[in-house]
Design goal:
Elements lengths: L1 E6 L14 H9 L5 E7 L9 E6 L2 E2 L2 E2 L2 H8 L3 H4 L6 E7 L4 E9 L3 H11 L3 H8 L4 E8 L5 E8 L8 H17 L5 E7 L8 H6 L14 E6 L7 E2 L6 E2 L2 E2 L6 E4 L2
Parallel strand pairs: 1-2, 9-10
Antiparallel strand pairs: 1-15, 2-6, 3-6, 4-5, 7-8, 8-9, 10-11, 12-15, 13-14
Helix pairs in contact: 4-5
């Protein structure tokens, strides 16, 4: 089973420009029909293109919540400049035709009570606390049945980006892992994929998850990962730039990552 994960950067290129290229990204991401595609930073108006889409940050116009369609029209003035300011964003999973959806669930990674408890435990200052509250983050999960009756729990997450203190993302990652394991049944292969916003070199949680106690497969070299528990996997592959180039444009500021579950 081929599992792929890609942060779509709201459909922007690297560097961003006025036009968006979300359609081109989705064609590139699905050209070889992966069994599972986990996507992050998907505009709210595009979430219905996937098997399951969950809004993390809803579309807004200042303090006013608006429709996804209106957010799209406002963003079309300059996608590179506005990004998710009006269109909102979320996580989405596409499951191939050989997989049957058995269950669907979602969890907010940074609710207020969680942030407050972690802020006290980590000794966070005011700037870090404000940054953590700025944007809602979620983990979504699909329980899937594959050929031969094998079942999978696929969790797709996007952790908070705060380079000044990656412990924020680390705390969310651990929360997402507990969520995925609790949603899975004992026979399920558990897949934890997405933009973790932490690297193995600096993340205590990643090292714990890939240790003997949790038993997940090894992480990638960057901040985008696919961890698997309960099955053998191929090494994580990061796409080279040439595979996500459209004309002279580099699609997204992240490269897709993928692996095969044996």
């Amino acid at each position: 089973m081929l599992v792929r994960s890609w942060n779509l950067f709201h459909g922007n290129t690297d560097p961003p420009q006025r036009a968006a290229f979300l359609d081109e990204m989705l064609r590139v991401a699905t050209f070889d029909q992966p069994d599972v595609l986990c996507a992050q930073e998907v505009p709210a108006w595009a979430l219905d293109r996937f098997t399951a889409g969950e809004v993390a940050a809803p579309p807004t116009f200042g303090p006013i919540r608006i429709t996804a369609a209106l957010g799209r029209r406002l963003t079309e003035r300059h996608h590179g400049l506005l990004r998710s300011a009006f269109s909102g964003q979320g996580n989405a999973i596409h499951a191939g035709p050989s997989l049957q959806v058995l269950a669907r669930s979602v969890l907010t990674l940074n609710p207020r009570r969680f942030r407050e408890a972690q802020a006290r435990a980590l000794g966070l200052g005011a700037f870090a606390r404000l940054a953590w509250a700025k944007e809602r983050r979620v983990v979504q999960a699909l329980r899937l049945a594959g050929p031969g009756g094998r079942t999978f729990l696929v969790a797709n997450l996007h952790c908070t980006s705060y380079p000044a203190d990656e412990r924020l993302a680390d705390a969310e990652l651990l929360r997402a892992a507990w969520f995925a394991v609790s949603e899975a049944l004992p026979e399920d292969v558990v897949v934890l994929a997405g933009d973790f916003n932490v690297t193995a070199a600096r993340s205590r949680t990643l090292n714990d998850l890939t240790g003997e106690e949790w038993g997940f497969s090894g992480p990638g070299v960057g901040i985008d990962h696919i961890l698997v528990r309960g099955a053998a996997v191929t090494p994580l592959r990061v796409w080279p730039d040439r595979e996500r180039t459209h004309g002279v444009r580099l699609l997204s500021d992240h490269a897709p990552v993928e692996l095969e579950i044996r």
